[in-house]
Structures are given as structure tokens and as C-alpha cells.
Structure to design on (423 residues):
């Protein structure tokens, strides 16, 4: 008894004590960016991966998976039972004592399968977190390109406004001199009103895109972030096609599905081995009231006559089959997505080149129109239309360039090119 008490005290000395971890009542204060210099796309992506609050919460899931791995690899504690019956009367000469020490050996039979499943689950969780980080990085880069496009759009609109205002002032002066009618003044006023409406819409879009980037960087809404001009390199078709062949071994979401399938396969192994479980081994002994002392082994096991662990086996088989189908569908979807994006990039490249050429032609026509209006060769309506049209062609070119750059970044993300992530 004394030895048992000592062992119990030693065992309890290694137990974990409870420490409270109260939840905060206020949101954490956002830390400022570590640099005031304009951020490149890579820097914005890196900071987003480091600071995004959703990613901080997602990484906590890795700790749960690590705890499951520890549980799978740790054998259960043995069971110790001790009984004592005092002698109250009769021919016997002493009290009886009985005891047993039993260890559940079931985890030893399923240890390799359970440990393999837990390891695969940890890898799946980590790959899933990596995919989230990958997507956040890609989204930060895309927002950097979009915000640069927003700024270019607004700059174009703001450049058209003084040109239309100067035209309006000239029309007002000509109308006062009796050379133009009120219809000419209405034309310039309408063009200015339309321009300012588009300018308001552009400012709203810029504010929304800025708010999304602020959220990724854990900054208060409305915090301006200086961005360097984006440098997005096109991915050669040969390099993209080569990367496509190794996609299942590099894309984190596909790797997560592969690890999930491995986990399901190991759980099926464990379920099959569990047909004879639980099995316990131990020893029991004692002394009866007549002083006879006995001891011997103790074995407990289940006989697979009725249940045979069939529900767990069928569930594991169905889970593995479902994950197999899900992986095939995801792999096909990933490959189709890459190929569709490649076709879209080819189209956008052609359209972007054409839009730049049309914008340059429209700008030249608008510049000539100013001289023509001053010479009285065209009216105010034609001049206003040409100014606004030149700006529209320029903004269309900016929009197509932004779409092309975001598509290139999306392709890089799908193929695993150029995006920072944490191992």
C-alpha cells in the first residue's frame, strides 16, 4: 500500500494545473505597418500573411491537430483496483484483500494506424492553413493591382475635369458674346455632371478596395497604404504547362485532400483491426478470509460474433470513397481552372494591346479637337464628346491592364508561382 501511494503521488506530480485564460472585452489594437515606404506586391502579400486576423485564428487549428497526434501516440493509463473486506464473524481468521492491475492493450494493436491517421490529419490541417495563407497572399497582391488601377482611373477622370471646365468657361464666354446658345452651355454642363458621377463611383470603388486591403493587413478601415507600381511578369506557356503536370504535389489544397485521404485510409485499417477490441491484459490476486493467497493473469476481449465493428468499418470505407471522389473532382477542377485562365489571359493580352492603341488615337483626336473648337470648326457638343470619349478609352485601357495583371497573379497562385507562404 505504501509503495502504491508513492507511485500515485509521483504520477500526479506530472499532471497539468489549470490556469484561466479570460477572453478580452475589446478588440486588439492594430499595429502600424513596419515601413512607411510604398509596398511592392510581394511586401503587401508577406505582410498580409503575417497580419491577417483570420489566418492568426486558423493557425490555432494546428495546435488541436498536434494534440490529437499526441493522444494517438500515448498509451492509456493502467487501471488499478483494490478491495478490502473486514472480517465481521464466522470461522475465518482474517479479513480479505483483493486487487488487480489491468492495462488496455487495444491501442497497441491499432497504434500504427491511429498514429498514421493523426499524422496525416496534422499534415492536412497544416496544408489547409498553407492554402489559406496562399490565398490571402494572392488576394493582397491582386488588391495592390486593383488599387493601382483605381488610382489611374481617378487620375484620368480628374485630368478630364479641368479640360471640361475650361471648355465650359469658354462656352459661357462665347454665349455672353452672343456667339453660342444655351444649348451649347447645357452640353458642357451635362458632360461635367456625367464626369463627376463617374468620379464619385470611382472613389467609392477605391474606398471599398482599400478597406479590403486594410482588413488583410489588420489596419483600421480607411487607412491609406502606399503602393509601389505593380510589376507583374507574364508566365511563359511552357513553364505554366510544366507546372501543371506537378500540380497535385504542390498545390496546398490538393495536398490537404491527399493527406485527408491518407487519414481516412488509416482509420479504415484501425476499424478493421478493431473487430476484436477492446483487449485488456493484467494480473489479479488477493487473500481470502482463510489466509489463502492467490494470483494470476487476467485477459478480457470481445468476441466478434454480432457487431464485429461493422458500423465503424462501413463508415470508414464510405469516408475513404467520398474523399477519393472529392480529390478527383478537385484535381480536375484545378487543372480546368488553370487552362481556362490561360485562355482568358491570351484574350486579355490581345484586348489590352488594342485598347492602348485606341486610347492613344482618341487622345490625339481630342487634342486636335481643342484647336478645331477654338477655330470654330466644331461645336461645343462635339468637343465635349471627344474629351469624354478620350478619357473613356484611356480608362478602358487601364481596366483591361488591371484585369490582365490580376489574371496573371491568379495564374501564379493556381500554379504556385511567386507567392510567399509559411512552411
Amino acid at each position: 500500500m505504501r509503495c502504491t501511494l508513492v507511485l500515485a503521488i509521483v504520477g500526479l506530480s506530472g499532471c497539468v494545473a489549470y490556469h484561466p485564460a479570460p477572453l478580452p472585452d475589446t478588440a486588439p489594437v492594430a499595429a502600424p505597418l513596419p515601413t512607411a515606404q510604398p509596398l511592392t506586391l510581394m511586401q503587401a502579400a508577406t505582410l498580409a500573411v503575417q497580419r491577417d486576423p483570420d489566418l492568426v485564428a486558423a493557425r490555432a487549428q494546428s495546435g488541436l491537430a498536434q494534440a490529437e497526434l499526441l493522444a494517438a501516440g500515448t498509451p492509456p493509463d493502467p487501471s488499478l483496483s483494490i478491495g478490502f473486506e473486514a472480517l465481521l464473524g464466522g470461522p475465518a481468521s482474517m479479513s480479505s484483500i483483493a486487487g488487480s492491475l489491468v492495462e488496455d492493450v487495444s491501442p497497441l494493436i491499432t497504434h500504427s494506424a491511429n498514429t498514421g491517421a493523426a499524422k496525416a490529419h496534422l499534415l492536412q490541417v497544416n496544408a489547409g492553413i498553407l492554402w489559406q495563407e496562399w490565398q490571402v497572399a494572392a488576394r493582397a497582391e491582386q488588391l495592390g493591382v486593383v488599387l493601382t488601377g483605381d488610382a489611374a482611373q481617378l487620375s484620368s477622370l480628374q485630368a478630364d475635369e479641368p479640360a471640361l471646365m475650361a471648355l465650359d468657361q469658354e462656352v459661357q464666354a462665347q454665349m455672353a458674346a452672343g456667339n453660342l446658345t444655351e444649348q451649347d452651355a447645357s452640353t458642357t454642363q451635362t458632360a461635367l455632371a456625367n464626369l463627376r458621377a463617374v468620379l464619385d463611383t470611382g472613389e467609392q470603388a477605391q474606398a471599398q478596395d482599400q478597406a479590403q486591403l486594410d482588413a488583410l493587413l489588420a489596419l483600421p478601415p480607411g487607412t491609406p497604404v502606399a503602393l509601389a507600381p505593380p510589376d507583374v511578369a507574364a508566365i511563359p506557356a511552357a513553364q505554366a504547362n510544366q507546372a501543371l503536370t506537378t500540380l497535385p504535389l504542390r498545390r496546398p489544397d490538393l495536398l490537404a485532400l491527399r493527406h485527408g485521404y491518407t487519414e481516412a485510409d488509416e482509420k479504415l485499417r484501425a476499424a478493421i483491426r478493431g473487430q476484436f477490441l477492446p483487449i485488456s491484459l493484467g494480473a489479479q490476486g488477493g487473500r481470502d478470509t482463510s489466509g489463502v493467497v492467490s494470483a494470476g493473469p487476467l485477459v478480457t476481449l470481445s468476441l466478434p460474433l454480432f457487431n464485429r465493428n461493422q458500423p465503424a468499418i462501413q463508415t470508414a470505407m464510405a469516408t475513404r470513397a467520398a474523399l477519393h471522389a472529392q480529390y478527383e473532382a478537385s484535381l480536375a477542377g484545378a487543372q480546368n481552372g488553370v487552362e481556362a485562365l490561360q485562355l482568358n489571359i491570351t484574350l486579355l493580352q490581345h484586348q489590352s494591346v488594342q485598347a492602348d492603341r485606341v486610347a492613344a488615337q482618341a487622345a490625339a483626336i481630342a487634342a486636335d479637337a481643342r484647336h478645331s473648337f477654338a477655330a470654330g470648326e466644331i461645336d461645343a457638343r462635339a468637343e465635349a464628346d471627344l474629351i469624354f470619349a478620350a478619357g473613356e478609352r484611356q480608362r478602358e485601357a487601364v481596366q483591361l491592364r488591371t484585369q490582365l495583371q490580376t489574371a496573371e497573379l491568379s495564374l501564379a497562385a493556381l500554379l504556385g508561382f511567386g507567392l510567399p507562404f509559411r512552411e
About this structure: The CA atoms of residues 85 and 151 lie 88 Å apart. The longest helix spans residues 106-176. The longest strand covers residues 96-104. Confidence is low (pLDDT under 50) at residues 1-10, 419-423.
